[in-house]
Amino acid sequence: MKLLKHILNFYLNSSIHVALSCYALVRITFHVFHIQYDEPMALFVFFGTIVGYNFVKYDALVRVKKKPIRNQLKIIALLSLVSLVLVGYYFFQLERITQIVSFGILAITALYTLPFFPNRKNARNWAGVKIYIVAVCWVGATLVLPLINAGIPFTADFFIKCIQRFILVFVLILVFEILDLANDDPHLQTVPQTIGVKKTKLLGLLLLVPFCLLELLISTFNYKDLFINMIMVAMLSLFIVFAATNRSKYYTSFWVEAVPIFWWISLSLMH
Predict the structure, then answer these.
(1) What is the pLDDT of residues 34-62, one digit of tens each?
(2) Where are the alpha helices (DSSP H) in the chain?
(3) Residue 144 to residues 13, 163, 165, 201, Cα–Cα distance (Å)
(4) Taking the CB of the first residue and of the last residue of the chain, which one, N or C, has fewer CB atoms within 10 A?
(5) Model confidence pLDDT, tens digit, residues 161-187
(6) Which of 225, 231, 216 lies closest to 262 in space, CA to CA?
(7) How far, in Å, CA of 152 to CA of 171, rounded?
C-alpha cells in the first residue's frame, strides 16, 4: 500500500497527471474540429506541460528557498530534463506559425514564475492575476495551438470554444483556490479570499450555465456531445459543491484535475 501511495504521489508531484489533463483537452480539440490525430502537437503539449508545471512548482523551492533536493525531486528533475528534450524534438515538427505562438505561451509561463520587473514579484504573486494567466495558458496550449498547427481558420466556433475552455479552466482553478484558502498568502487576493467560499462556489456553478448554453451555438452541434458535456458539468458541479479547505490534497490534485481526462475518455467511447 505504501508503494502504491509513493507511486501516486510521484505521478502527481511530477505533473504527469496535469499533463495528461492537458493532453486530453488537446484530443477533445481534435475531436470538436475534426482534426486528424496530430502526434507531434499532442505530445508537445503533454511534455511541455510537465516541463512548465515542474518549473513553476520547484523553481522557487530550489532557486529562492534553497531547500535541499530530496531523491524524489532529483527524479522529477530528470523527468523534466527528458521531457524538455522531447519538447524540443516535437517543437521542430510543428508548423512555423505554431512555433512562434508557442513562444508567446512560454513567455507568459516565464512571466508567471520569474520576477522580470524590478521591485516586483513574479506574476504568480500579483494580486488577483494568477487565475487568469493559468486559464489563458491552458486555452492557448490546448485549443489555439492545435488549430493553428492544423491550418484551421478562426471561425465563430473557435471563439465560442475559447470562451468555453477558459470557463472550464477558470472553474477548475476555483476549486483549487477553495482548498488552498488556508495556505494562500492573503495578498494574493484569490477569488475565495475576495468574495468568500460560498460566493466562489456560486460563481463556479453559474459559470457552468453559459458553458453549457454556448455548446448550442456550435455549428457542428450534436446531441451526443451535448449529453457527454452535461455529464462532465454535473461531475464538476459536485466537485464545486463539496469543495472545502479540509479536503485531502488528492481531491484537487487527482480527482478535479481528472475531469478533462474523464471527458475525453467519454467522448472517445461514444464515437
Answers:
(1) 999 999 999 999 999 999 899 888 866 66
(2) 2-13, 16-32, 39-59, 71-91, 96-113, 130-139, 145-150, 156-179, 191-195, 197-215, 223-241, 249-250, 259-270
(3) 27, 12, 11, 28
(4) N
(5) 999 999 999 999 999 999 988 777 777
(6) 231
(7) 27
Say which DSSP state 186 is in.
G
For residues 48-77, one letter each, b for 16 or more C-beta atoms within 10 angstroms of the residue's C-beta and e for the rest, the string is: bbbbbbbbbebebeeeeeeeeeeeebeebe
Domain ranges (residues) in the chain: 2-270
CA–CA gap between residue 22 and residue 50 (Å, rounded): 10
List the end-to-end C-alpha distance of the chain, in Å, as a whole number: 37
Determine the pLDDT at residue 221.
77
Q: In the numeric block, which cell numbers belong to residue 53?
A: 508545471
The C-alpha angle 241, 247, 249, rounded to 5 degrees, equals: 120
Report the alpha-carbon angle 44-167-154, nearest 5: 60
Q: Look at the chain and count its residues.
A: 271
What is the pLDDT at residue 124?
54
Question: Residue 116: its pLDDT value, please?
Answer: 46
At residue 88, the pLDDT reads: 96
Torsion of CA 169, 18, 49, 225, to 10 degrees: -50
Cα–Cα dist 111/28, whole Å: 28
Rg for the chain, CA atoms, rounded: 18
Helix/strand/coil for 60: helix
- Helices 39-59 and 71-91 pack at an angle, to 10 degrees, of 140
Check: CB of residue 76 under 8 Å from CB of residue 14. Answer: yes
Q: Are 214 and 163 in contact (CB under 8 A)?
A: yes
